[in-house]
Amino acid sequence: MTVCKFGGSSVADAAQIKKVKAILDADENRSIVIVSAPGKRNREDEKITDLLYRCNEAVQKGGSCKEIFAIIQERFISIADELKIEKKPLIMQLEEIRQLIDAGRGADYAASRGEYLSAFLISQYLNFEFIDAADSIVINSDGTVNPFSYDKIHMLVDNSKKKKFVFPGFYGSTKDGVIKTFTRGGSDITGSVVSRAVNADVYENWTDVSGFLSADPSIVEHARVIDTISYNEVRELSDYGASVFHEEAIAPVVKSGIPINIKNTNRPEDRGTLIMPTCEEKKLAGVSAKGGLSRIKIRKLMLFKKQGMRHALLTMLHIFGIRPSFSLFGIDSIVWFYDTKMASESILDAMCERLKSEFELDEVSVDSGHAILGVVGSSIADDGSYIKAAKALSDASIPVSFLNYGASDVSYSFGIRDEDKEKAVKIVYDALFK
Ligand code: ASP
Pocket of ligand 1, candidates 47, 54, 115, 187: which has the most ligand atoms within 8 Å of its Cβ, to mutate? Predict the structure, then answer.
């Protein structure tokens, strides 16, 4: 059995959905489909999910979602029109959803309706059974998937008369039955959860590129498609900003070792990238960089002499809403990097004051404009490539604030300035891959 997840660009309009049908018709094993909400049809277009978040914002500000919802409504109705699907049930659903958003159901409910309506329409077009993720996927308060979901999906699929199914991606519900979404791009996670539940032979993840690329093609024109890559490497590349596959979508399939095949809806004949539990061949996989980071630096003589210091400092950061993505330690210092969006300047000022007084620090400072560049590959432990990468950055006069090598078996990273991100990716890529 093959589970197929189609991303937003693959279901952006009726023409794309027709391609989805052709892909499914070409292979009988493709019996379970997960869909995203319609994405952008062109550069200027807006994703349905973004519009739905805007609907909720309008309501939170005391207004109505009517105007923005009209755009959503029009898009779904035009898809139904072109696919020759009966419009009455869709119009009724749209009206009910609009009323509930206006009644203040909240961001998760609003955002989830893009996937819901997409699956509702596509299941009719394909004549597959619609299974609502709200009835089958339980999401814990920390965003992880409750294992109960696997049995539930298995049971629903097993007990159904129809042998083909469509699930909406991106959401499930809390154990109390309230709609809850994964983080953005989370339909990939739904695909993994369903794959594990039905013990799929393969999880095909259909998108608009022919696989995982060794670098962002808008930065490195000659970036190539990675043939085969391991679960670990994908997680790391995604964490460094490569956007093809959600980094949390690996976890559900790890136990069962299901292969994931990234494929292109617009070029189904291309092999794409195969993501496997492990890969035999030792090689470099890719380079990626993620910006928008800020840095907190702390210094105090004999900082770690007192037991539990790291934990106490981190707890203080959490109190101010900062959850660092990574940290570095020295004998008398700690440096944390976190997503700049996590805290405003006034919150940071208050936090620095509190840190300084409570822990009697010699120095505490925060600055923004940082980025991290990661090189990922199974060969990094003994190919010496970090030396070549560091030299390339130095030759190009790109300042490096840290080098993190050895914490992971399959990646190392450099701290760079946000403004150097693209240049650095290009330079390191050329030094290692050309
Ligand atoms: N539609 C959601 C988003 O735009 C989820 C997804 O497409 O995976 O983030």
Answer: 187
Is 90 exceeded by the pLDDT of residue 416? yes
| Angstrom distance (rounded) from CA 353 to CA 411 | 36
Atom of ligand 1 nearest to the CA of 246: 8
pLDDT in tens, 52-109: 999 999 999 999 999 999 999 999 999 999 999 999 999 999 999 999 999 999 999 9
Determine contact, residues 233/410, Cβ cutoff 8 Å.
Answer: yes
Query: Which ligand 1 atom is nearest residue 190's CA?
Result: 8
Q: How confident is the model at residue 46 (pLDDT cuts 50, 70, 90)?
A: very high
Query: For the stretch 221-255, what's the b/e string if a residue is b when 16 or more beta carbons lie within 10 angstroms of its beta carbon?
Result: eebebbebbbbbbbbbbbbbbbebbbbbbbbbbee
In the predicted model, what is the mean pLDDT of residues 182-197? 97
Confidence label for 25 from pLDDT (cuts 50, 70 and 90): very high
The pLDDT of residue 306 is above 90: no
Domain annotation for the chain: domains and CATH numbers: 2-208 (3.40.1160.10), 286-433 (3.30.2130.10)
Tell me phi and psi for residue 202, to 5 degrees.
-150, 150
Closest CA to 374 of 348, 408, 350: 408
For the entire predicted model, the pTM comes to 0.90
Centroid of ligand 1 to alpha carbon of 186 (angstroms): 6
